[in-house]
Amino acid sequence: MDWTYIQGILMLAGINLIAVLGLCLLTGFTGLFSFGHAGFMAIGAYIGALMTVPPATMAGNIGGFGLPFAVGIVAGGAAAGLVSWLLGRITLNLKGDYFCIATLGFGEAVRLILNNVKTFGGARGWPGVPQYSTVWAVLVVDIIAVLFLANLVRSRHGRNMIAVREEELAAQIAGIDVFKYKMIALIVSAVYAGVAGVLFGHYMTFIQPKMFSMTKSTELTIIVIFGGLGSISGSVLGALVLTALPELLRAFDIWRLVFYGAAVILIMISRPKGLMGGMELSPAGLRKVAAARRARLAFRAEALREDAAEGLRAEGEASPGGKA
Amino acid sequence: MSQFLQQLVNGLSIGSVYALMAVGYSLVYSIMNFSNFAHGGVIMLGAYFGFFSLTSLKLPFAAAFILASAGTALLAVLIERVAYKPLRDRRAPFLYFIISAMGASILLENIVIATIGPTFRTYPEIFAREPISLGVLSIGRLDLIMFFVSAFCLAGLILFIEKTRIGKAIQAAAYNMKACALMGVNTDRVVLIVFALGGFLAGVAGVFFGMKYTVYPQIGNITTKSFIAAVFGGLGSLPGAVIGSVLLGIIETLVAGYLSSQYRDLIAFVILIGVLIFRPTGIMGKSTEDKA
Amino acid sequence: MSANVLEVKGLTKRFGGLAAVNDVSFDVREGGISGLIGPNGAGKTTIFNLVTGVYKVTAGEVSFQGRRIENMEPYKIADLGVTRTFQNIRLFKNLSVFDNVLTACHLSAKYTIPEAILRLPRFRREEKVLADKATFLLEIMGLQDRRDIQANNLPYGLQRRLEIVRALALDPKLLLLDEPAAGMNPDETEQLMRLISEIRERFKLSVLLIEHHMDLVMGICEHIVVLNFGQKLSEGSADTVSSDPKVMEAYLGSSGGNKC
Fold first, then answer.
1. Strands C33-37 vs C206-210: parallel, antiparallel or unpaired
2. What is the CATH number of the domain that holds B240?
3. Per-residue pLDDT tens for A183-223?
4. Which residues of B touch A185 (CB under 8 A)?
5. Does residue B178 sit within a domain?
6. Looking at the domain assignment, is residue B130 inside a domain?
7. Mean pLDDT in chain A?
């Protein structure tokens, strides 16, 4: 087990994590399901490559603008965000199913377009993307991504998104502009996916449409589910574990997805809060869990006391009193 | 002109397969207000059931066909019981259903890959290859059969829903599930029957798809088109699903014929965007408002 | 013009061929407690949905403090000062009691997303205001000691109370209560009556409630509107309405008797 191998896994996990965090916000906190976020990754990857690949010197090479990595990251994220805004305008004020189907179509459409557009290499892809992604770069982006998300979620804006997930109608009545918050969640998730795409392309040094298939989209969502809807730390752990696991269990690779599929169903019917049970591995998160448990126990004790007092009273009066 | 008509016929033929897929999906949607994304997996297994009935069990075509469709009907019911019923009982949010459906879809696709293997299978030739000529048009025998069997199944379904008591119960449940339960209808059974019907149609669609093209684990992905067709025709409307599918099939074939086959798959997405922007309720759709 | 906080004129809502609400008009006076009663299916909740923007009107007008609000987006109407509770409780079930109220306080803060992400001073300041407000509301409504319990673990009666607290967090001028006493025994109903009166006094708002518990309605409603089959049957004070023969017939049939 050499360092380069472990490094590779960490890189992939770290890159996956960014896209996963985006979906964590969209699905875990706002309750919207996307089948096509790999499409946003693809947009990020290709636009990012367009920015950073040096201009074509030989015929047959696809050239870019040769700009620095940072430009590629910003451009990739922004492009993904812009497209998501368009998608959101069309679909977010319709019922939930329409959004799901649209993301399904969107993911496939992006892949198809990239497959057929020769300028970006078509199905064979775009080789020669500079390897700008380093472990440190990914780590820094990861930290920023987690902090941004955590700060967003623990604010009135984040709470509004959670309210949309919990009870959309009640959220409306509570003065929350549901459309606006769904849109924000969508755009942020798309930007995150786009940035992940840029980092991915600059790690693999080549990009192909088939890297961004529906399988990729569903894998990202699976990680969010395993980690637990509504838990950022769950997504972090999930990304680490579920990226590393397949590498370690190479032999069982075919069965991996079978297991995932079954596990997802099981999680939904028994413990939708996933690995982390909806709680966060942070000081505030743990405090919250402890407080809730204390409150529940105190409440139960009080109820028992009341019942006991009730029982004594009933015996004393020897009459059919008591609660309705 | 004759080429145009020929394309039309081809489009109609693929459209009828889409219609079988879309109707099964729309049927479930109309009752449960939920998109059964595992539908594709059921269709795929229908293709495999038919294939193995013909090759391993060496059954005659009609028997294999029925067996495959009965198998998918059972499978659909099984999926409902395992993946959806627990959520229905808990009145889980819509999101959980979609996620569970996704899980089922992944499970089905990959169980096939892991056990049977990803290689493409081809159906043995049941119908003679040479097409039938009707004047300037030529129609493949398979296409003709597909069209008639589909039409027959759909007509049968419509009759069932309109004329039988259970059909009425389904209509009532589609309108308002809760009221239906209060009226003494066994909604569990209605859901079961609906899934069985949808599953049956999926089996028919799967077998036909396998016969016309090939059999492989990712057939489920084709159902994206049938979802789009259902939206196009109006989500929850059965006639809409048929109309949307047929139109999609025709438009797709015309685009592939006159523009380029590369755009064939893309046109479905363009139609979807168009529908969502201009008429989200689809061709036959009715708008519904949430009851508080 | 007399101070009407809510005016409903010719309100009509059709679903397909069925008119759930048909040409209903009534007013709610500022500072008053009005009741909307009628048999099941009479259209009461539909009217609530029309007033709060959940449904679009087929015809008619709704005016709040002199301003036309029919067909506005629900969140905008809430922002203007109309809030409600639901017949089947719609709390944010998985959130704690405190978080339910804290979320609803959001309109009392103005900080933007970037300010939240960067944890700028305005964020910290306003968050404290929100937390204090939520705590204050929970205290006066008697839920402060249960603030950390998950909303769906509360007993039924307290869940209903929490819904009211959440509605109050938006600083409403008009509070719509949809069957607030559902499932309560006479003691609890009595408590609720006092609570509603207190709320009206303390928060200086008007109340419109839907109820089937006649003791509650007759007890605190100064003005009652009776609906049947989507149409207004009668309107007036508790005495007027309870002696109206049309009302008696609709509720009790012509045989008379006691309504529970």
1. parallel
2. 1.10.3470
3. 999 999 999 999 999 999 999 999 999 999 988 999 999 99
4. none
5. yes
6. no
7. 87
Q: Who's near A311: CB < 8 A, 6+ residues apart?
A: none
Cβ separation A158–C116 shorter than 8 A: yes
pLDDT one-digit tens code per residue, A265-285: 998 888 777 777 667 777 777
Q: Is B229 left (phi over 0), alpha (psi -120 to 50) or beta?
A: alpha
Instruction: Give tens-digit pLDDT for C21-44.
Output: 999 999 999 999 999 998 887 889
Scored b (16 or more CB within 10 A) or e, A63-86 reads ebeebebeebbbbbbbbbbbbbee
The whole-angstrom distance between B292's CA and the closest CA on chain C is 7
Contact A102 B87 (CB under 8 A): no
121-180 of C, contacting A, C-beta below 8 A: 123, 127, 130, 146-150, 153, 166-167, 169-170
**Average pLDDT of B8-24?**
87
Closest Cα in chain A to C79: A175
Closest among B141, B120, B125, B105 to B221, alpha carbons compared: B105
Spell out which residues of chain C touch residue A169, defining contact as CB-CB under 8 Å.
Answer: 54, 86, 90
In whole angstroms, give the CA distance from residue B179 to residue B177: 6
ipTM of the complex: 0.90
Question: Do C99 and A324 make contact, defined as CB atoms within 8 angstroms?
Answer: no
Contact between B272 and A101 using a beta-carbon 8 Å cutoff = yes
pLDDT of B180 higher than 50: yes
Choose the closest CB to A258 out of B107, B268, B292: B107
Contact flag B87-A269 (C-beta cutoff 8 Å): yes
Range of the domain at B12: 2-119+142-278
Check C45 against B289: CB less than 8 A apart. no
Domain C1-81+172-260 has CATH 3.40.50.300: yes
Instruction: Give yes or no for C78 touching A (CB within 8 A).
Output: yes
Between C129 and C184, name the one with better pLDDT: C129
| Chain C residue whose CA is closest to A178 | C75
Q: State residue C176 phi and psi, 5-degree precision.
A: -105, 120
Q: Which residues in chain A are closer than 8 Å to C106, comparing Cβ atoms?
A: 156, 159-160, 174-176
Q: Which residues pair with B215 in a beta bridge?
A: B121
User: Are A155 and C111 inside 8 Å of each other by CB?
Assistant: yes
Helices (H), chain B: 2-32, 39-55, 61-79, 85-89, 94-115, 141-163, 165-175, 177-182, 187-212, 223-233, 238-258, 264-278
Token readout for C37 is 């009663």
User: Under an 8 A CB cutoff, do C94 and A174 touch?
Assistant: no
Which chains lie within 8 Å of chain B at 3 or more CB pairs, if any? A, C
Note the pLDDT of residue A245: 81
| Residues of chain B contacting residue A169, judged by C-beta atoms under 8 Å apart | 290, 292
CATH architecture classification, C89-170: 3-Layer(aba) Sandwich (3.40)
- The helix/strand/coil state of B124 is coil
Mean of pLDDT values over A39-66:
86
Cα separation, B81 vs B104, whole angstroms: 12
User: Can you tell me the distance from the alpha carbon of A51 to that of A35, in angstroms, rounded to the nearest whole number?
Assistant: 27
Please answer yes or no on whether C86 and B289 come within 8 Å at the CB atom. no
pLDDT for B137-155, tens place per residue?
777 788 888 888 888 888 8
8-state DSSP, C212:
S
Predicted pLDDT at B88:
86
Hey, are the CB atoms on C87 and B289 less than 8 Å from each other?
A: no
What does the pLDDT look like over A149-184, one tens digit per residue? 999 999 999 999 999 999 999 999 999 999 999 999
Domains and CATH numbers, chain A: 3-270 (1.10.3470), 282-324 (no CATH)
The pLDDT value given to residue B248? 93
Entry pTM: 0.89
